[in-house]
Amino acid sequence: MLVGVTACGGGGSDKASGGDAKASGKPSASASPSPTKPSGPPMLLDTITPQTGTTVGVAMPISVIFTNPVAAKARATVEKHMKVSTSQPVVGAWHWMGDRRADWRPKTYWPSGTKVRIDADMTGVSNGNGRYGVHGYTHTFTIGDDVRADVSVTGHTMKVTRNGQTVRTLSINAGSAQYPTWDGTMAVIDKQEKVHMTSCSVGISCDKGSPNFYDLTLPWDVHLTQSGTYVHYSTGDPNPGSGSARGSHGCVHLSLSDAKWFYGQVKQGDPVTVTGSPRGKAPADNGYADFNLGWDQWLTGSASGEQTTTAL
After folding, report:
1. End-to-end CA distance of the chain, in Å?
2. If you average pLDDT over residues 178-207, what whole number do you get?
3. 192-215: string of b/e by CB count within 10 Å (b at 16+)?
4. What are the pLDDT digits (tens) for 90-133?
5. For residues 193 and 176, what is the distance between their CA atoms, to the nearest angstrom?
6. 55-83 per-position pLDDT tens digit
7. Nearest 5 degrees, angle CA 235-CA 241-CA 242?
8. What's the pTM?
9. How far is 185 from 287, CA to CA, in rounded Å?
10. How far, in Å, are 18, 31, 229, 300 from residue 306 at the CA level?
């Protein structure tokens, strides 16, 4: 699972490399030791996301993070040993985010209700840098309801839909001209009831006398990027909307009641799509913004190309 900085990151890092991602808690990959002695140091997986037994949104990729770099010459073989099976056929492909992270995403969003299994049989597989896999890993998860949030920066609204039906349209404020919000689609990384947010942690300001300095613990936080983008309530912007469009440091602000409601609606992997921001799309590896790459772009990062899942 990816770990992000704990602040709105309008002025923070523009890129959060999958190769630098660290495990959040103990890796949940299940493993069984190889009966044979490996040919070299072990090639291990740091994490596989989603975790086994979870229900996730339609934009959630399968994200595999290796503990050591995988050479380009070895990636086709490694991909072929990471088999994706589903309860209904889904077209998708792997894509490498640097040399330690590989994501598998469908060409279009997952169909709701799909059962998914990833079998990463790494036993004896080389990473091209002298390491060999010694474990097999398996994760199973389910695609839940198709919940989406569409944010209009210029309209100061966020429309929430479930399985194609509009549930509510909420008033929002997005980033200011100085600290604009990322555009594009970002799948929810995780959510927390409270997050300690500081301007210093994302490089905005460490000067307590600066008008852009903040050090706050804020509620109902839905995490969108590793660089620090959240949908949440802010005490400095309690009634967001076009009549109070003061702008954030890159996050999307909701009222307290709307933030609590939205928090209860979304899950990991639900797509939040922002339009109308001048910043441009979040990089694909800044959290789970995989769908910010077109399909042709996605395939350029794949060693084995487009594939259809095998049947569960």
Report:
1. 25
2. 84
3. beebebbbebbbbbeeeeeeeebe
4. 999 999 999 999 999 999 999 999 999 999 999 999 999 999 99
5. 25
6. 999 999 999 999 999 999 999 999 999 99
7. 135
8. 0.87
9. 11
10. 21, 27, 31, 10
Tell me the C-alpha to C-alpha distance, in Å, between residue 287 and each of 19, 220, 245, 271.
12, 19, 27, 12
Residue 11 — pLDDT band, cuts 50, 70, 90? very low
Q: For the chain, what is the mean pLDDT?
A: 87
Tokens of 73: 């010459």
How far apart CA 81 and CA 79 sit, in angstroms, is 5
Question: Which one-letter amino acid corresponds to residue 134?
Answer: V
Q: How far is CA 10 from CA 183, 192, 223, 247, 291, in A?
A: 12, 20, 14, 11, 21
Reported as type and span, the H/E element at residue 96 is strand 91-97
Q: How far apart are CA 56 and CA 110, in angstroms?
A: 10
Give the Cα separation of 157 and 150 in Å (integer). Answer: 8
Q: Are 11 and 26 in contact (CB under 8 A)?
A: no
